[in-house]
């Protein structure tokens, strides 16, 4: 699988994972935040974590492959990470000596010494399932490189140069599959095995794999959502990453995909980039509108320093400055009719006809109700919880538990949220007193008769 063959939606999300934390506002080399950058999925060279100068060298995950759709099914793995690159600015001194400097101005343009990164993408495989059942191990390498670029003034005189240096990084991917007819457990492990004489944090970072993730694709079968398989006979093991289905979900085969993204960031199945986002801003849980306005509020001098810091910072500033008024308005999000398609059943006062204006009472979460499987559920109802695959890890622990309904809410998107307290929670009364509830969608709860709550 080449770069052009990867699903566009998969690549967009994978790139967001790859560059998360790469730059932090205000994107200037002098910013304290940018001098202490951090990223997810950092695999340090062996010994770095033990010496306290880097992170652990490996990450691993297990996912499920469904029934074969044809014989000769094959799995391909794409390993992606950022390769640290040191950019050093040097001034041409007396006698032709190159002298490292923090910054160098050439005809009004600044060149700044900075740590940047380049993308590494290694496609491994494909392998047949018989090979995977025996286990495969593949080594890969991101080569070390030293590149030089001279800096000349308007009269053509060479006054400095920029030297970009990447140290070699080597790694190993292990992939194996359990034997079986209906389900196979696919285990993937990736390790940084770079041999390095550990001295300091800078060396460890330079030979780390940053934003590391793996994309698994299968031709001839589909991976199964782990959120839909809570009763697998043996718990699947995940270490520093989690596999989620990626790409575009096929409505005829929900909960399956030929592609899995093994991500160091916790995601739901089929993650996607918000259509209102004009491009990555590299900030965790970014809010595009706020950051865009902050960037536009920078002075011209600050923008010039940011542009000199990194080419991607320059791209961000150029993109923000080119936004139209309609583009900026679109960053607010999508305005929806909060009353459209409401499933809430209003509490109609006695003696009032349901079609009259008096029946349209104000929002009352403790008395509003919603129909679930033909049963009216409202405050005081008893339900059994069945968190879906969109639930977070904590909610999954509540599967099958009995709860009392406290409130019914509808958000501005028209989605219903049922607030509950667990029946066997000794702090339930306290939660009710100050309004701290667990919230589930109507399709995640099952009405239970009062006499069946036990």
Automatic annotation (TrEMBL):
This is Uncharacterized protein.
